[in-house]
Model the fold of this input.
Amino acid sequence: SLAVLQDLEDGLKKADADPSVKAVMICGENGKFSAGADIRGFSSPKRPGVGLAPIVSLIESSEKPVVAAIEGVALGGGLEVALGCHYRIAHVKARMGLPEVTIGLLPGAEGTQRLPRLIGVPAALDIITTGKHIPATEALKLGLVDEIVEENTIEAAIRLANKV
Done:
């Protein structure tokens, strides 16, 4: 939603400007990182506000380490947010993917550029063109996530942020 995007932008800018903040952790709520955009909003009139691609670029360009704590799902725009992060930790039961292609939409926040850079062209093309959901264990093998945990991903992400 526009509110979530605005909160992400505001939080990132505030963290970058605060010298006492050493790292940033992005997580979802209620056991889910993000299932991406609400498709019903695609047909509504364009409203002023921040877009997802500039937010992902803002995350990526942060001078402070940004860690994604992925629980549940990181799909579509949610995965693109995670791809903008410098590090990604996923719960062992998490799933990731770009399912919007199954309804004829291309990922719109530069996931088609970031994913191949991270995991290589062949694996990225498979994910981008099929829309399949990748389990955390496969994501780790591909290099999509840096670590998987069976415990609290937020605590694990904070530990990683403190380490880096």
